[in-house]
Amino acid sequence: MEALARRCPRIKFLTLGGFQGLCKASWLHLDGVAVCGSLESLCIKSCLDLTDASLAAIGRGCGRLAKFAIHGCDLVTSSGIRRLATALRPTIKEVSILHCRLLDTAACLTALSPIRDRIESLEINCVWKEVEPPESVANGTIGCNHEDDDLDEVSYESASKKCRYMELDDLVSWEMLRSLSLWFPAGFPVLTKMKLDLSEAVGYALTAPAGQMDLSLWERFYLQGIDSLITLYELDYWPPQDKEVNQRSLTLPAVGLLQRCTGLRKLFVHGTTHEHFLSFFSMMPNLRDMQLREDYYPAPENDMMITEMRAESWLRFEMQLNSRRIED
């Protein structure tokens, strides 16, 4: 990295993946990528020995950074993110933090508070749960924020609650924010009932060439992993829609993903589907009540689209569903 800075002193954009020793920050002097002072964009992926001290050194040495991304660096904590944000406050505009083991979404938002009035684009995809408390916390007390804060010391339990909710409530004060992407698990161990409304996800339908449509990408995107909600008992689901052709129906990827929710007993779909897709649902062992509700923007009476369910089609599915052996 130091040779790169010498040979390419005007380099502005740099993406590094799978490297070690990018910035050791062993002494007060700058080393590694921290000497690339002309950088305006830096993305670091899977650097397993990157530490909070490394981020602090990068903040001091790369004073022109407007965009910073860190992915899969498991030694970095919210303290390092905060030190970097504080050092880069005059220039930083975009931040991306993905899959760092010692970080969660709430802690990242708190750590970025020094630049929340300046940041324009923010992406965070970290596990939404409490990370293991540092040794100082385990011994008694902790402050919600780090060394730059003026908060009094409080118990770890109350501090974690403040860290979890305080910055989310204050998102309105991120006045320059133009792009926000926060990823976190939607399910909890005791989740039994869910309303999932994708009726405004028109996406590809409005940009596709004439006569072509594919909303299945949307449903595959939103429903991926729904089978992990093992306690889910009831689902009220509004599929994506295509207003151009007056249609809202389940696609094949959606049917396949919903079928994997083996604990589901009640399924209400506000739309229609192909008749042969219904056979997927008849294989769900615990499904007892399924309804297709045409309560969206009802199709005109002369609409003969193949996705519109007919009474005889539904009766066949109902007989198939009720003919199964019900243990309870």
Overall description:
25% of the residues lie in helices and 16% in strands. The protein has 10 helices and 12 strands. The strands form 3 sheets. Strands 1-2-3-4-5-8 form a 6-stranded parallel sheet, with no helix packed on it. It has a 4-stranded parallel sheet with strand order 9-10-11-12, with no helix packed on it. A two-stranded antiparallel ribbon has the order 6-7. The model is unreliable at 130-169 (pLDDT under 50).
How does CATH name the architecture of the largest domain?
A: Alpha-Beta Horseshoe
Let me know the largest β-sheet.
6 strands, parallel
How many domain modules?
2
Order of secondary-structure elements: HEEHEHEHEHEEHEEHEHEHEH
| Total of DSSP H or I helical runs spanning 4+ residues | 10
- From the spread of the alpha carbons, the general shape counts as elongated
| Strand neighbour order, sheet with most strands | 1-2-3-4-5-8
| Average residue-wise pLDDT | 77
CATH class category of the largest domain: Alpha Beta
Q: What's the CATH topology label of the largest domain? A: Leucine-rich repeat, LRR (right-handed beta-alpha superhelix)
Organism: Panicum hallii var. hallii
GO cellular component, one term: nucleus
InterPro entries: Leu-rich_rpt_Cys-con_subtyp, LRR_dom_sf
Protein name: COI1 F-box domain-containing protein
Concise overview:
With 328 residues, the chain is an alpha/beta fold. The protein has helices at residues 2-7, 52-61, 78-87, 105-111, 135-138, 156-169, 216-223, 252-259, 278-281, 311-322; strands at 13-17, 41-45, 67-71, 94-98, 121-125, 141-142, 154-155, 179-183, 193-197, 234-238, 266-269, 289-292.
